[in-house]
């Protein structure tokens, strides 16, 4: 049973929320929609759920015109980024709600709800009120409610974004094991996120969305190794990939008074207006490197993010340890240039360290 | 410092309580007085300052033939009109409020907010302005001086209150709850009845309370639109006044007319502190 979309377009005002989005989702697969805030992820999920009707385009599921089926008959499930539950019902009734709606007998409802509670680790909480649960538990309840339906399409709209760091890690692990278990055989799982790391960890098919437009489709690894354009490179890296305008000639890369020998995959590029892309993790501190000035230093978890400046160039580097820097400190860094990407003047990938597009 | 604060706090609370309760106590004692104990100087405590009697209360249930003013029928008229009009207003008002909160209406330059304002604009006009069209309207459909006519007018007056309160309330119920209900297999009516409404009980109670209060205390329209067949309580109480003001029976009737509102307030207060939407969205 495939879910096929053709040129979905939704433009409620001046800006496109969806701009000719097409895809072909197959059952048993996990699809990750990666995009920044306001890129149209939620709109796309709501359109699949039937909560929004696109201005034009078609959705087909199981060979039927999905747009003609009202939401309540589509048999989809959705988990929102806010923890949406029914506040007037307790945990058990919240999860039983979609089953009661189908008029299934009580015994079966009980079994299914308990099974679902077990899979999200909330056994013993059946009689609690929703308001008494923590955010993570509330999100588990809404996940349980969407699992209990055995929906053919399961939509998860940034389900982890409102949780704190630890819970996020923990739930993400649970998601992975849930997705790999039985669920995946007949369900189309669609997971939207802004977080590139989450995308890589879930390791499904990735759709990169920006301003309502699909920029690239492919397995997570492929998106990470060969981002098709500057935009994708920015979206699929956190912190975003550093983009530096550079010039390549005589096998040398030049920018802002720095000259580096070009690696093989870049040395033969001759286009003008080239931009070099380097991940923040591919730049390191080095005694005999190039001098940059610290503009901002932030510590996140066990990492230090440095915002650096040299002339007109601004870059971000991440260091895998906690270090203290003062603003305006001068530090020296070195580029792992063999990991650099090159993008043409049109923003398209010109060369990647992972082959494929090697000029 | 904190002792002073505690003292001031309690002082203020006691002061306020006396301020609020005193008139009621005064009315209560007055209702048991007679002509002498009202007009012969100030009297406070029954059995000490004056001899209490039930005359003031008895007058209220005696028929006019026996020199009384029967308020029993007006009382039930008032109850019936207020409750029926409030109930219908709440039902219609809640439905319109939900529609105004969830769907977008547009007719030329008229949009949702304008429609909501249109409802409340009924209450902005001075009652005297509304009374003439109401009078003409009711007389043209032969409903002047009838309970049904009053109910119709009260619905016009009360529904805006219900709409106004409920629109605001529904706007605070996250749309995602309705959407989740739709996804979980409810059609829009079921989503409203099974999910949105049960989560709007505090709003319904507040709206209901306002409808009942405004319906119950209305004197003006009851006075203009009824003559002899039908009388409502406020009109009847005013009619108690004759050449000699019967303070005792006026006090007694004031107390019985306030009683339903006090009961409503006690019930509502219990529900208001309960149930909120904090668990819907975090």
Description:
The complex is a heterodimer of chains A (359) and B (282). Chain A is α+β, with helices and mostly antiparallel strands and 359 residues long. Chain A has two domains: 3-227, 3-Layer(aba) Sandwich (Rossmann fold); 242-351, Nucleic acid-binding proteins (OB fold (Dihydrolipoamide Acetyltransferase, E2P)), CATH 2.40.50. Helix content of chain A is 24%, strand content 34%. Chain A is built from nine helices and 21 strands. In chain A, the strands form five sheets. Chain A has a six-stranded mixed β-sheet with strand order 6-7-8-3-9-10, with helices on both faces. A four-stranded antiparallel β-sheet of chain A has the order 2-1-4-5, covered by helices on one side. In chain A, a hairpin with a 7-residue loop joins strand 1 (3-10) and strand 2. The mean pLDDT of chain A is 88. By secondary structure, chain B is an all-alpha fold. Chain B folds into two domains: 2-66, no CATH class; 72-239, MetI-like (MetI-like fold). Chain B is built from 13 helices and two strands. Chain B has a two-stranded antiparallel ribbon. In chain B, helix 4 (72-102) runs parallel beside helix 7 (147-172) and helix 8 (175-183) packs across helix 9. Chain A binds chain B through residues 46, 49-51, 70-74, 76-78, 80, 82-88, 97-98, 101-102, 129-133, 135, 138, 142, 145, 149, 162, and chain B through 174, 176-177, 179-187, 190, 195, 198-199, 275-282.
Quick tags:
heterodimer, A: 359 residues, alpha+beta, Rossmann fold, OB fold (Dihydrolipoamide Acetyltransferase, E2P), 6-stranded mixed sheet, 4-stranded antiparallel sheet, 9 helices, 21 strands, globular, B: 282 residues, mainly alpha, MetI-like fold, 2 domains, two-stranded antiparallel sheet, 13 helices, 2 strands, 71% helix
């Amino acid at each position: 049973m495939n879910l096929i979309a053709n040129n979905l377009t939704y433009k409620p005002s001046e800006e496109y929320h969806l701009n000719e989005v097409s895809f072909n989702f197959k059952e048993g697969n996990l699809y990750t929609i990666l995009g920044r805030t306001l890129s149209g992820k939620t709109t796309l999920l709501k359109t699949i759920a039937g909560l929004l009707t696109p201005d034009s385009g078609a959705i087909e599921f199981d060979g039927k015109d999905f747009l003609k089926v009202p939401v309540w008959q589509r048999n989809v499930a959705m988990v929102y980024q806010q923890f949406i539950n029914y506040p007037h019902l307790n945990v058990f009734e919240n999860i039983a709600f979609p089953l009661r709606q189908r008029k299934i007998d009580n015994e079966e409802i009980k079994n299914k709800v308990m099974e679902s509670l077990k899979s999200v680790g909330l056994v013993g909480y059946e009689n609690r009120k929703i308001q008494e649960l923590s955010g993570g538990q509330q999100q588990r309840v809404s996940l349980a409610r969407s699992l209990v339906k055995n929906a053919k399409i399961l939509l998860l709209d940034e389900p982890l974004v409102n949780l704190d760091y630890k819970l996020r890690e923990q739930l993400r692990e649970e998601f992975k094991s849930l997705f790999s278990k039985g669920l995946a055989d007949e369900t189309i799982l669609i997971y939207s996120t802004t977080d590139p790391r989450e995308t890589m960890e879930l390791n499904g098919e990735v759709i990169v969305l920006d301003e309502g437009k699909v920029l690239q489709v492919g397995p997570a690894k492929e998106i990470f190794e060969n981002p098709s354009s500057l935009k994708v490179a920015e979206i699929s890296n956190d912190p975003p990939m550093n983009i530096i305008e550079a010039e390549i000639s005589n096998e040398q890369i030049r920018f802002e008074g720095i000259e580096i020998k070009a690696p093989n995959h870049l040395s033969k590029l001759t286009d003008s207006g080239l931009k070099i892309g380097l991940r923040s993790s591919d730049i390191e501190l080095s005694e005999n490197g190039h001098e940059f000035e610290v503009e901002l230093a932030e510590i996140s978890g066990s990492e230090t993010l440095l915002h650096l400046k040299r002339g007109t160039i601004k870059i971000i580097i991440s260091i895998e340890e906690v270090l203290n820097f003062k603003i305006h400190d001068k530090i020296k860094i070195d580029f792992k240039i063999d990991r650099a990407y090159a993008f043409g003047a049109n923003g398209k990938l010109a060369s990647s360290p992972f082959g494929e597009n090697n000029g | 410092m904190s002792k002073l604060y505690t003292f001031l706090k309690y002082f203020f609370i006691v002061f306020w309580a006396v301020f609020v309760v005193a008139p009621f106590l005064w009315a209560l004692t007055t209702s048991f007085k007679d002509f002498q104990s009202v007009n012969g100087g100030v009297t406070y405590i029954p059995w000490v300052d004056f001899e209490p009697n039930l005359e003031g209360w008895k007058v209220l249930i005696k028929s006019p033939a026996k020199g009384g003013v029967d308020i029993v029928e007006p009382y039930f008229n008032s109850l019936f009109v207020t409750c029926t009009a409030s109930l219908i207003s709440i039902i219609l008002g809640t439905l319109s409020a939900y529609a105004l909160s969830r769907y977008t209406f547009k007719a030329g330059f008229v949009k949702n907010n304008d429609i909501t304002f249109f409802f409340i604009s009924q209450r902005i006009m001075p009652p005297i302005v509304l009374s003439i069209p109401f009078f003409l309207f009711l007389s043209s459909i032969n409903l002047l001086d009838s309970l049904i006519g009053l109910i119709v007018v009260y619905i016009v007056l009360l529904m805006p209150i219900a709409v106004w309160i409920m629109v605001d309330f529904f706007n605070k119920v996250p749309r995602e709850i309705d959407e989740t209900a739709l996804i979980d297999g409810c059609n829009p009516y079921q989503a409203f009845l099974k999910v949105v409404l049960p989560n709007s009980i505090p709003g319904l109670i507040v709206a209901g309370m306002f409808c009942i209060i405004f319906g119950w205390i209305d004197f003006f329209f009851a006075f203009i639109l009824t003559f002899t067949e039908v009388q409502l309580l406020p009109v009847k109480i005013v009619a108690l006044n004759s050449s000699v003001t019967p303070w005792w029976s006026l006090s007694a009737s004031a107390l019985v007319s306030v009683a339903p509102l006090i009961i409503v307030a006690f019930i509502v207060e219990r529900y208001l502190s309960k149930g909120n939407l904090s668990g819907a969205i975090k």
